[in-house]
Design a protein that fits this description.
The structure holds two protein chains of two kinds.
Chain A: E1 15-26, E2 35-42, H1 62-67, E3 71-75, E4 95-105
Antiparallel strand pairs in A: 1-2, 1-4, 3-4
Chain B: H1 5-14, E1 16-19, H2 25-37, E2 46-47, H3 48-51, H4 57-62, H5 65-75, E3 80-89, E4 114-119, E5 131-132, E6 151-152, E7 156-157, E8 164-169, E9 174-175, E10 185-193, H6 210-216, H7 225-243, H8 253-258
């Protein structure tokens, strides 16, 4: 005796989720202080942000990004100066990472 | 044609010196062919007089009075040619460089190299002229570890007329931008190492001009509030080295935190 198996149905998702990342550098350690620098990375592939591609920040403050729907996922910790290097200047200190999840329609 | 103290102070604050359209038009036209063919390398650390034949294009570029005077003011007579390079950005080609400082981390407190950047053609915003960040040269970072930073407020996206020469401190954050135009962009760079102490090498007749302090006190829009004060502190130390004046200060920043009286009360 033979049994016919049902033909599997393709399970292509109607959409997929992709992450967009926004990095803001702020005037001090408060999230509502002014933006002094910014970077973007786009997991949807719709845009290609790169070095030196803008003159004005996307938001005036870090809080402005929250109000526009970005979710804060990391804030730079406050680290005391290393003894003997209190006056050194180096990387930007007040770095905040935000994300936004975008839905993409999958190709049929 | 030496720099004066006000312009030197501006270099110490900004980390760069821009000389617009100082190279004559006929040399700029010649340069387009010279750079397209390439400039033969010289061994690292070649004394300048031995690096380029007197009639060669680089030698004539360095003999332009404004260029010669600026170089002498910054690094003194007969520096070494560290290396040179022709940078070519093809039309609609390549990617922007990550923001970086050249070579490796270099924290010499009393000496600095300079890099000459020469642009033989007009550079438009679309051509992807060099991106640089004013006042970044004293930050202690190593090469492209700053690559995460795409844009900083007050950054300089170079747009300039033909024949422009820019001198930059070795620590300045910079990068070639993406060329979105239909024109190939050329830039010729030479790095120089000083062979003398970099102290009072310029025209010092205006050393006590109040504009010296105001140039050194420059604020840049990308500085964090607190770190911006440390920038003044570090500029003051560099200016002290360059002038030999151990008491120079801006608004008491260094003096205040160095004050450790040893005299006991009577």
């Amino acid at each position: 005796m033979t049994t016919d198996s049902p033909t599997p149905t393709p399970t292509t998702p109607a959409s997929v989720l992709r992450q967009q990342v926004l990095v803001l550098y702020l005037l001090n350690s408060a999230l509502d202080s002014d933006v002094v620098g910014w970077s973007r990375y786009d997991g949807t592939g719709r845009t290609s942000p790169t070095t030196g591609d803008g003159a004005e920040p996307p938001y005036p403050t870090g809080l402005g990004a929250l109000k526009d729907g970005w979710r804060l996922i990391q804030a730079a910790p406050l680290v005391p100066p290393y003894p003997g290097h209190e006056y050194d200047v180096s990387f930007l200190k007040h770095e905040f990472f935000f994300e936004r999840i975008e839905k993409l329609h999958a190709p049929l | 044609m030496l720099l004066n103290s006000v312009r030197m102070a501006r270099f110490v604050a900004h980390g760069s010196l821009r000389l617009d359209a100082v190279v004559p038009a006929d040399m700029n036209a010649e340069a387009m062919g010279v750079l397209a063919r390439g400039v033969p390398p010289v061994p690292y650390g070649t004394p300048l007089p031995k690096a380029y034949a007197p009639d060669s294009f680089p030698a004539r570029l360095l003999a332009v009075p404004q260029v010669e005077g600026a170089l002498r003011s910054l690094v003194g007579p007969e520096p070494l040619v560290d290396h040179h390079a022709v940078h070519v950005r093809e039309p609609h080609g390549g990617e922007a460089q990550a923001l970086h400082a050249d070579a490796i981390i270099d924290v010499r407190p009393d000496a600095f190299d300079v890099q000459l950047m020469y642009y033989p053609q007009p550079v438009t915003l679309e051509m992807g002229g060099t991106l640089s960040v004013p006042g970044s040269h004293l930050r202690r970072i190593n090469e492209s570890d700053t690559g995460r930073y795409q844009n900083l407020r007050g950054q300089n996206r170079l747009v300039c007329p033909a024949g422009t020469v820019v001198f930059v401190h070795h620590g300045l954050w910079h990068g070639g931008r993406r060329n979105d135009s239909d024109t190939t962009r050329y830039m010729f760079k030479i790095r120089f190492n000083p062979t003398v102490r970099q102290r009072l090498l310029w025209d010092t007749s205006d050393l006590h001009d109040p504009r010296v302090a105001s140039e050194l006190d420059a604020e840049f829009p990308w500085y964090e509030q607190a770190t911006g004060r440390l920038e003044r502190y570090n500029r003051t130390l560099l200016w002290r080295e360059m002038t030999g004046d151990p008491h120079f200060d801006l608004d008491h920043w260094v003096t205040r935190v160095s004050n450790r009286p040893q005299e006991a009360t009577a």
